[in-house]
Design a protein that fits this description.
By secondary structure, this protein is mostly helical. The chain has one domain. It contains four helices and two strands. It has a two-stranded antiparallel sheet with strand order 1-2. A hairpin with a 3-residue loop joins strand 1 and strand 2. Helix 1 packs across helix 2. The longest helix has 16 residues.
């Protein structure tokens, strides 16, 4: 098992992450990175994942991943919202797949 990554959480201290936890963290990191992707479709998918407020509570949903790591999904969304506006400013609403 991969045990090199560490996570700092308030009141818990450093903790070695299991491989399943690394996968959850990778999902979250990729979604955040995709918010800055040059492709509008990738940004839209990432935005739909991060800013989805439906009742999808699967293990990989944004809310579930945040809850697992004891992060406030609302606070993370609030922090990411300006990146959405920056990433989409000056970009046409529709990009052709030429």
């Amino acid at each position: 098992m991969a045990r090199g990554a560490r996570l700092m959480t308030e009141g818990v201290g450093a903790k070695a992450l299991e491989s399943e936890e690394l996968l959850l963290l990778a999902v979250l990191e990729q979604a955040i990175a995709d918010l800055d992707d040059p492709c509008a479709a990738v940004r839209a998918d990432a935005s739909a994942y991060v800013f989805s407020y439906d009742s999808d509570y699967s293990i990989f949903s944004f809310d579930s991943v945040c809850a697992y790591f004891k992060l406030s999904a609302t606070a993370v969304r609030r922090a990411l919202r300006p990146r959405i506006k920056e990433a989409t400013s000056g970009v046409p609403a529709f990009e052709s797949a030429a």
